[in-house]
Structure formats: structure tokens, C-alpha cells
Amino acid sequence: MIAIKHLPLRECGYAIGFVVLLVALYVGGYYAMVERIVTLTSVTPGGVRVSRLEKTVTVGYRFESELLHRIFAPMHALDRRLRPEWWNPA
Question: How far apart are CA 1 and CA 5, in angstroms?
Fold first, then answer.
């Protein structure tokens, strides 16, 4: 049986650094890929002649893919909480 002579602090530091690197790549990839798509639609409530424009904001990615929507869904949910004025229509 091999006795441990020291705590594996160096190895823990490498593991923490690797996890931080992965998180940074994930967040950076999200912000590099995400696009805010603003759509204006004309709404005529109840057949009234006066129409108004309704603004909707949706998420899009530079390379549109269902896989990207799944991968970045947690980051997008966090982004909506961090920047609500960016994602909510004014």
C-alpha cells in the first residue's frame, strides 16, 4: 500500500484550472454565437383601423442548429436573467 506524503494540492489546482478553462470556452462560445433577432409585426386589435407595431425578441445563432439551442440553453437562461433589458422588448 502506498502512503500519501502530501495533499494533492497541485493536482487539484490543475483540475480547477481545467474546469475554469472549459467554463470560459463555453461562455465565450455562447457570446460569440448568439444573435438577438427583433421582429416587428403589425397588430390591429378588434378590426380597428389604427394599427400598432408589436416587437418580439428571439434568440438566434450564427450557425442555426437545434444542437446549438440545446447546448446553449442553460447559458441563454442565465443571460436572460443577467441582461433582461437586452432580451425583453421595450
Answer: 13
Contacts of 84 (CB under 8 A, 6+ apart): none
Q: Give the integer Cα–Cα distance in Å for 42 and 70.
A: 31
72, three cell numbers = 446553449
Return d(Cα 21, Cα 84) in angstroms, integer. Answer: 27
Q: The whole model's pTM is what?
A: 0.72
Q: How many whole angstroms from its chain centre is CA 71?
A: 9
- Which helix (H) or strand (E) segment holds residue 80: the answer is helix 73-82
pLDDT in tens, 18-77: 999 999 999 999 999 998 888 887 777 666 666 677 788 888 888 888 999 999 999 999
Q: How many CA atoms lie within 13 A of 22 on its CB side?
A: 6
Please tell me the distance from the alpha carbon of residue 64 to that of residue 14, in angstroms, as a whole number: 35
Which DSSP state fits 4?
P
